[in-house]
Amino acid sequence: MKTVVKLMVIVGLFMTGKQWVQAAQGSGNKVIRYSEYGAKGDGVTDDFDAIIKAHEAANKAGLKVIADAGATYYIGGADKTAIIQTDVDWGDAKFIFDDRNIANRNTNIFNVSSKLPATEITTVKTLKKNQQKLDLSLPYSSFVVANNNTVRNYIRWGPDANKGYPQTDVFVVDRNGNVDMKAPIIWDFATITSMTAYPVDPEILTVKGGRFTTIAHQMQPPQRYTSRGISITRSNVVIDGVYHTVTEELDLTVPYNGFLSVSNCTNVTIQNCLLTARKISNMGTYELTVNRSTNVSFINCTQMNDIHSTGTWGIMGTNYSKNLYLDSCHFSRFDAHMGVANATIRNSSFGRQGLNIIGCGTFLIENSKVNAYTFINMRSDYGSTWEGEVIIRNCQFLPRNGLQADAVIIGGENQGQHDFGYQCYMPRKITIDGLVINDIHTPPNYTGPKIFANFNRDYTNANYVEKFPYIITEEVSIRNLTIKSGKPLNVSANPYMFRNVKIVNSE
Questions:
Q1: Which region among 15-24, 178-187, 343-352 has the lowest average model confidence (pLDDT)?
Q2: Is the pLDDT of residue 358 over 90?
Q3: 420 vs 151: CA distance, rounded Å
Q4: CB-based contact 339:360 (threshold 8 Å)
Q5: Shortest CA distance to 330 belongs to which of 281, 371, 290?
Q6: Rounded Cα distance, 163 and 157, in Å
Q7: Rounded distance, CA 397 to CA 451, Å?
């Protein structure tokens, strides 16, 4: 027996990483560690190749990956990605992403992806808003992205004006083509130039832990977006307990596309994470991005640097997304760039850049605090449009975090002269049920807080003509409103524009 044990130890000294995996499987050990593939974890040696190989083996064998306790993994600027398709526990391990000299700014370090192949759909030729079923038969429930390159939406107005983007919609269907009506189709498509179905994995994949530090890209602007983080393109994923900091940023830094970026998927939860807003860039620069996705939640996530700082950009940006949910988050900003359908925010606080929305459906914020110029800003560069309802419940508003400021609940601008590629709406109904306005440092001649900003300074009489009519709010319902200054609530500095809004005060 002793001879057999000695022989096994001697053979083990000459085993490769893959052979160790095979032996581990045979002995009941169901995990893979980076050190098994040569990772040193000393913070100096570039461990990227070893990390990539470990995940390749784990994906093939269906095994969990565990980082070595106490390790520091240095990852240089190679044009490579580690593909994650199994559970990962990074524990207390540290990762250094050195972006000072990268080979490809578009290559993320990690990609959480599905093993299931996407399907190009060519049989569906049109779509209707709120359509409930597509004539499809698919092997899996799928997340669908539809495009129409012959129609342009989100034709931006203002300093960053552009010619818009192809009409895009995202939704989930089951194997028989039934649309999940919790995230309905929101556009009519007269034609479809491309449609892709991304299978929804039935099992939840979990990525836990890890202490990440990015040594920032040192190139001087102007520079296009850099992607050097963790991208999630698989449905049914939980990211739990990731910490991320940024060092060696220049005063005017290169724009980043998100350390955690979610795209082309559904049912993703990012929770218990500590994150960092980046320094001001010549373009927007982000820590969190959500693009073409549904049912994405951020729970108990905190921005580690000052949410009120004028030296950092807003931490978050989203496009073409539905059913976003935030609970117990502490961010400088929530932002829906090119549309969100339905968003819920609870038990959270927002700093200098506040809440920025464009989209449709129901926007609900409750038990939260906003410290921006306006409580909600409807982005003027995309028409200040929200086709649906806004609900504010049991919240606090401290304009500009206590600096001198007017107090405006709903901000935005639309002069009715620009074609954004869609009809623009104000929220059909606004419900305020519990709001404390801390208007403690106001400008001279302050008359009190306002429900609406002056959305169109020229629209002061019946002679004004809108080329593209802006649909005004029908009703504002108010109860449990506290105004610290004691001043009365005003409709707007431009009462004519909002003359037909029904104000229902239930005090």
A1: 15-24
A2: yes
A3: 11
A4: yes
A5: 371
A6: 9
A7: 12
pLDDT digits (tens, 9 = 90+) for 131-173: 999 999 999 999 999 999 999 999 999 998 999 999 999 999 9
Between CA 290 and CA 318 the distance in angstroms is 5
Q: What is the radius of gyration, based on Cα positions, of the chain? A: 25
Q: For residues 246 and 281, what is the distance between their CA atoms, to the nearest angstrom?
A: 14
Q: Is the peptide bond before 221 cis (omega within 30 degrees of 0)?
A: no
Three-class DSSP category at 48: helix
Name residue 165's beta-bridge partners: 153
The beta-strand segments (E) located in 233-328 are 237-240, 243-247, 257-271, 274-275, 286-299, 302-303, 316-327
Name, in order, each residue with C-beta under 8 angstroms of 98's C-beta and a sequence gap of 6 or more.
Answer: 74, 75, 76, 77, 215
Positive/negative CA dihedral, 7, 8, 12, 17: positive
Q: How do strand 194-199 and strand 119-120 relate by DSSP bridges?
A: antiparallel
User: What's the token pair of residue 431?
Assistant: 């419900």
Rounded CA-CA distance 39/50 in Å is 5
CB–CB of 303/333 below 8 Å? no
pTM (2 d.p.): 0.92
CA-to-CA distance for 124 and 142, rounded, in angstroms?
Answer: 15
The answer to whether residues 429 and 362 touch, using CB atoms and an 8 Å cutoff, is no
3-state secondary structure of 177: coil
What would the two tokens of residue 332 be?
Answer: 């400088």
**Whole-angstrom Cα distance, residue 128 to residue 18?**
51
Strands 88-89 and 64-66: parallel
Type and span of the H or E element at 19 = helix 17-27
Largest interatomic CA distance in the chain: 101
